[in-house]
Amino acid sequence: MEPGGTFLANELWDPDAYHLIVGQLEAAARGQGAILALQPALLALLAGEVREGRFSSAREHYAELLEITEAVGGFTGFYVLLDIELVAWEGDEEIARKKVASLIEAATATGTGACILHGYLALARIHRFDSLLESLGLW
Fold first, then answer.
1. pLDDT digits (tens, 9 = 90+) for 27-85
2. Do residues 89 and 53 both lie within one domain?
């Protein structure tokens, strides 16, 4: 299964296709014992769970992602920043803002455009919450 399928399913706003593709990626990676291929599958699962408001399940995928990254000697210092959208949705604004700044800085230094975008997406979530709370008179 081509990893671009998750991107396409997102662009088409097709959650059923997204779940199908991500499920196939995860199953193939696990079935083949391809730990490195499991990392992007877990990130995609995490993103889907966050989008659907299943934060506990997203945290489980994230914990597994960190375990795998550490086990293969990956750069865990970078991966610990990839839960920023989840942190933003959970409402921990202070931690989210710190992680956003760190992720954008690290991603800019390494030329990782997708992670820069990820950081700004989480920042947009934080600002939307501020605006929503303010409009409801709760801020």
1. 999 999 999 999 999 998 998 899 889 999 999 999 999 999 999 999 888 899 989 88
2. no
Go through 88-100 and write b for each residue having 16 or more CB atoms within 10 A of its CB, e for each that does not.
bbeeeeeebbebb
Q: pLDDT digit string (tens) for 10-25?
A: 666 778 888 888 899 8
- Of 19, 40, 74, the one marking the end of a domain is 74
In whole angstroms, how far apart are CA 71 and each of 12, 66, 68, 123? 35, 8, 5, 30
Quote the number of domains for the chain.
Answer: 2
User: Are the CB atoms for 117 and 82 separated by under 8 Å?
Assistant: no
Three-state DSSP string of 8-23: HHHHCCCHHHHHHHHH
Q: For residue 48, what are its two tokens?
A: 């889907």
CA-nearest of 88, 108, 34, 38 to 66 is 38
Q: Which residues contact 108 (CB under 8 A, 6 or more apart)?
A: 116
